[in-house]
What does this fold into?
Amino acid sequence: MDANPTITVLMPAYNAEKYIGEAIESVLGQTYTDFELVIVNDGSTDGTVDLIKTFSDRRIVVINQQNMGVAGALNTGLKHSKGIYIARFDADDVCYPERLEKQLNFLQQNPDYILVGSDVDYILENDEFLFHFYCIAHSHDEIVRKLYFYCPFVHPTVMYKKENVCNAGGYPTDAHNFEDYMLWTSIAKAGKFCNLPEPLIKYRLNPTSVTIDERWRGKRFRELKRNAVLSGFITQQDGNELLAIIKTQDVRHIKEGSYHALCGKKFLANNYQPQKARAHVKKAISIRPLRLDNYLLYTVSYLPERFISWLHKMSPNRL
It folds into this structure.
């Protein structure tokens, strides 16, 4: 590895034994090779560290720490990173081979841009293709217009200039589950943003992932998030309240129910396969039988594809 690689691929990892091997392989197989892969082991209690050790590539740097959450792990990684550019990546996703090359070329050819993301291909926990996600905005002007209404980037797709993020103080540790969104609003005036209109990663949905459908988080969570994004600031007290909400919900049955409900929705609205949709919704209902929205989703699955597509476009809760 060069003493000063151009890119640092920054990967936080917490109990990622099941998927991290494939994630690492996809980074090491990039067409662009001048990078370091900084993996922050955030207090894993499974075999994550042992699996990482099976790779002997000198570009891999492992940092072990007590569990601090995603934002804490990312800030640790930023402190240890040597690259001019940071390519975010998660331990359960898969990079397409030209991901780093294409994003670096864009940033180097457009020096007024400080961050570039991309579309993604969503996959299930078993690697099955779920749907192709088109970002809500691609050009800088589109992104800026929508920035305070929706998060415009899929976090593990982004590559950004390290300097701008460090100048903003890194990831806000009290913005639990939306630390990336608040960071983008913090650096918005430092330069331009872009999403490339092509998928550069496979984003894996799985029941153990940190983020679940925000409809399942509840109204108070969404209120706290909205206020923080609009004000550009979040108090420790609000952060503690967010964390308390998350801890009551990040239990196995709730996460699994959210996962299957989301898969059912996407197999209807984004990749019309109603039989697969109903199979997932049935699982969601069996896990959380008191959630009425799952029964509605099951009923909707029998409607024509065109009508379902129209309903999806009208929904304010699009993924």
Remarks:
- Residues 53 and 62 are 9 Å apart (CA to CA).
- The first helix runs from residue 20 to 28.
- The longest strand covers residues 192-204.
